Amino acid sequence: MTDTVARYILGLHGWLALAVVFALPLLEASAFVGFAFPGEIAVLLGGVLAFHHRVSLAAVLTAAISGAILGDTIGYVVGRRYGRRLLTGRLARFVRREHLDRAERYLAERGGKAVFFGRCTAALRVMIPGLAGMARMRYTTFACYNIAGGALWATAMVLMGYLAGASWQRAAHLASRVGLVALALLALGFALSLLTRVARRHPARLYTIADRLAATAPASAVRRRFPAQLGWLRRRLDPRSPDGLRLTVTLVLAALCAWMFGGLTADVLADEDLARLDPRVQAFVLAHRTGWLTLIMGSVTWLGSSVVLVPLYLIVTVALLWRRRLREVRYLWSAFLGAVVLYKLGKQLVNRPRPPVAELITPAGGQAFPSGHATQAIVAWGMLAVVLLGGRSARARAWMLSTAALVVLLVGASRVYLGAHWLTDVLGGYALGGCWLAVILTLYLRRGSPRPPARPAPDHKPDHKPDRKPDRKPDRKPDRKPGREPGSAADPIPPGGSATIGS
């Protein structure tokens, strides 16, 4: 079915093609068409039609963005009005009430990220808007994340189709793989967030759940077979230990970035896969240069240069030393100087030439791969954000990390726009810098965290009461009271004696 619809779309022209590019993302979440035909295929093919000059690129972008945003808005309204009624009707036996309430609370409080990142996967694009409406998420919050996610997703899909041209099927396969990776990362982030929250608020409950899982028959068999390996894995996944979950996540990120850098380096050296897209991307950029955008990109690119980063680091160093935070100063400069050494070494090993000088509108020299600006930007701004996060609120931390990520993306885009680097140069710089940043964060977060306390006792109180109360020391009484004769019935019995009644 997908191939049939794709061939039909590729045969369209003019307004009819734009209508299809608008309608399919619109119906994806509002009418659940996305379960049968992902809207990203139509948007991708719209970029292919723009590549063949059947429609204008600006018109395709407008149709795709507006269709994506409007479709999710309709899905939100449908979920808000009818979603609860559907799930409490015939479907109630398949959905547990407490699970539904928990999902609604999460989406109402923290669902903005799900709305934004859910754009990357077809299944989430279909479900998330309706679930957000059913959870009574504030419409202003939903609209902000919906507009941002829809605009970014539609623009990326259209440009991917435009740059792929006749190779749109390979681009569609790449988009689906990116969607699966994004879905896995989103699920992993949700699981880690939930695990960290439980460990922070109810640490004993976490240990209780782990003990119950370990007591099952399959787990017991595995424990007997691999006791040392499971012990090591448990220590690596402990969210309360500085050598636990946080260390594991940063090391996994470092390995992932190193793998990406190795793949990009192989593509550049062999001139395969992503490296073949570089000339097309460069031609697209040259065709869409404008005066005002050139001025902006010429200014933004300095945020990844040592001319700006070194003075900025010196200012931050003075402020940190004033507060006697020498440890942060050491890690800041270790990260920055290590990034410089790594990208210079990479340039010498790959020895890739830059784009033609005629396309260059900014001073640049030396080898191209990897981009030094991209490497420095992700390391420098990432470390600054992490160091300055201490003691901040959750909202302030989110804004700080988002600002750092935006600066890094703009620096990379400026290097391609100004003709100083190929696209794979910037991606290689991101991968190399991300790997080094993860290594530094591993050391920084590990040594900056206190050792975890001993395993806490369970949250519940014992069901039984003690059989007897602890012995109490009897009060000492005087041997005689004034006004009484010795030997009377009120006198205490002497040790070892017997009581006599009468004389």
Q: Care to describe what's here?
A:
By secondary structure, the protein is mainly alpha-helical. The chain folds into two domains: 2-196, no CATH class; 242-447, no CATH class. The chain is 69% helix and 0% strand. It is built from 19 helices and no strands. It has helices spanning 2-10, 14-30, 39-51, 57-87, 97-117, 122-134, 139-164, 168-201, 203-214, 217-225, 227-236, 245-270, 278-287, 291-300, 306-322, 326-350, 372-387, 394-417, 423-447. Helix 16 packs antiparallel against helix 19. The longest helix has 34 residues, at 168-201. It is globular. Residues 449-455, 457-464 and 483-503 have low confidence and may be disordered. The chain crosses the membrane at residues 6-24, 31-51, 57-78, 143-168, 174-195, 244-262, 302-322, 329-346, 373-391, 398-420, 426-445. It comes from Planosporangium mesophilum. InterPro entries: DedA_domain, PAP2/HPO, PAP2/HPO_sf, VTT_dom. Residues 457-484 have a biased composition (Basic and acidic residues). It is a multi-pass membrane protein.
